[in-house]
Design a protein that fits this description.
The chain is of the alpha+beta class. It contains 3 helices and 13 strands.
Length: 188
């Protein structure tokens, strides 16, 4: 049985309508899936290191050998510290093991290319830290002299410390000066 002209036009109309519906469904699928993919897999626009409280960095941790730090950042050794000013980082080393990592955000001490996993970095404020990590275990303010290569001035310091989490933040005149990471003091 061969379809007549009316049946042919009806079938063509159904196919055209289905193509429109199919095109809309495919378009909606790609729109939805691309927006979900964007949210889930969008590359981080910040390519620096990630600081983990109580641990350090994924590839240079508290408790690692001094050699691990030197392989990653180079640096010189002085008075128990391995210092890498070009990378804005140093390590306190005792018996060949990293005890504390210091990440600096100051022209005088170097600027570290990184931030915490929670997003605290060089442009963060004390309020950002407290909003992110909660009420500090210790919150100390003070002031003191600082000598740069060209001048001597007084800075106002605020240290926001979370020994229970293994991380502390020091601000000079309201700007993040350093992040310190060490073994947390909480009982496990």
């Amino acid at each position: 049985m061969t379809p007549n002209k009316n049946q042919n036009s009806t079938m063509i109309s159904i196919i055209k309508n289905n193509k429109k519906i199919l095109a809309m469904l495919v378009g909606a699928f790609f729109l939805f899936s691309s927006s979900c993919t964007h949210i889930v897999t969008e590359p981080d626009s910040h390519s620096g290191y990630r600081i983990v409280p109580g641990m350090g960095l994924l590839n240079c941790k508290i408790g690692d050998d001094e050699k691990t730090f030197k392989n990653l950042f180079s640096g010189t050794t002085a008075n128990g510290y391995v210092i890498s000013r070009t990378n804005g980082v140093e390590a306190l080393v005792i018996d060949g093991k990293i005890v504390t990592l210091f990440f600096f955000f100051s022209k005088n001490l170097g600027i570290f290319d990184g931030r915490t996993l929670e997003g605290i970095g060089k442009n963060s404020t004390p309020d950002d830290v407290i909003q992110t990590y909660g009420k500090p275990d210790v919150d100390v303010t003070g002031s003191g002299p600082f000598a740069s290569s060209t001048s001597l001035y007084t800075y106002h310091e605020r240290s926001i410390k979370y020994p229970s989490k293994g991380i502390s933040f020091t601000f000079w005149d309201g700007h993040l000066a350093d992040i310190r990471v060490y073994k947390s003091s909480r009982v496990r």
